[in-house]
Design goal:
The protein is an alpha+beta fold. About 35% of the residues lie in helices and about 30% in strands.
């Protein structure tokens, strides 16, 4: 509980927790089992920015292979070693974030315009508009 910053909810019923607290408790439960693999679906959902970063730092520090679905491209680029981009239910591209995240890919897969810049070798996506249909 200390590692996941959930000690303050130990005496509370699960039903009284906020969405973000529930998310952190679920991650704490999973990590307490000392898994060799984690499969996470939008683990940062319902979390404020600080808790998103803390949770992803915690997951990255865990000695486990982790596969997560993330819709935030900047968080994925920052915290993942490999990105797999799906489009129409199929793998479109996979590889290191700096190779995968391009303005062309973002436009093609997500129908939005973006500028992608490297900051300390990590791609940063800045959305600039919706592509015309």
């Amino acid at each position: 509980a200390r590692t996941t910053r959930t000690s303050h909810v130990l005496d509370r019923a699960y039903s009284t927790l906020s969405g973000g607290e529930r998310q952190r408790v679920q991650i704490a439960r999973a990590l307490a089992q000392e898994p060799t693999e984690l499969l996470l679906d939008e683990p940062t959902n319902h979390l404020d920015v600080r808790h998103q970063l803390e949770l992803l730092e915690l997951v990255r520090a865990a000695r486990t292979t982790t596969v997560m679905a993330l819709h935030d491209l900047n968080l994925a680029a920052t915290y993942c070693d490999t990105l797999v981009v799906l489009a129409d239910g199929r793998v479109r591209v996979a590889g290191p974030p700096a190779e995968v995240l391009t303005a062309e890919l973002v436009a093609d897969v997500y129908d939005v315009q973006a500028v992608v810049t490297l900051v300390d070798e990590v791609p940063h996506v800045r959305f600039t508009g919706v592509t015309s249909a």
